[in-house]
What we know:
The complex is a heterodimer of chains A (110) and B (122).
Chain A: E1 9-12, E2 18-23, E3 35-40, E4 47-50, E5 64-69, E6 72-77, E7 86-93, E8 99-101, E9 105-109
Chain B: E1 3-7, E2 11-12, E3 18-25, E4 34-41, E5 47-53, E6 59-61, E7 69-74, E8 79-84, E9 93-101, E10 109-112, E11 116-120
Amino acid sequence: QSALTQPPSASGSPGQPVTISCTGTSSDVGNYNYVSWYQQHPGKAPKLMIYEVNKRPSGVPDRFSGSKSGSTASLTVSGLQADDEADYYCSSYAGSNSYVFGTGTKVTVL
Amino acid sequence: QVQLQESGPGLVKPSQTLSLTCTVSGGSISTGSYYWSWIRQHPGKGLEWIGYIFYTGNTYYTPSLKSRIIISIDTSKNQFSLRLSSVTAADTAVYYCARVGFAELHDAFDMWGQGTMVTVSS
Lengths: 110, 122
């Protein structure tokens, strides 16, 4: 199981959108609609932001949205805010009762 | 509101066994709606799924660690535990326990403990 590939960094100005990609294979992202996204601030535990590709848990702003095409999933944060500056990780069910995380993307609000 | 809390030694000697416990409060660990998982994060690195357990005791482990891991559950104490044997410096990490959706929030880690740093050093 190899980690899902994410860009190391992404950035945007306040109010602008930023999109993060998460590339897997036909064994994980490409085969299951069980992709989730997590936000992690320094020194804190990850927080679920998106599940099942494009669903938001209660309390997560609708500025956060998810999508998937083939073996690549994406997280878009529209209307960037200062508190959105954090590390973001994707995760996918990978079959055989296993999971794989992405390499992580550091989002900077310029 | 369900909360998870990890506990255990912060320092483990090389070749010994790392043992951590996750205490679940605010809800039953015996619900059939969730798996109970361990995840770790090496310093400055990404997240690594370790394994999970169902309330029935069924376990599933990541292949790379499978030979050294035991995850167990104690429903009477609303706790589940991780044992990682023959540790080396490469096992130094923050260890998180987390809840994984099964019936809802399918295969998403929706609740996390705060994490506990474990250092492997003599």
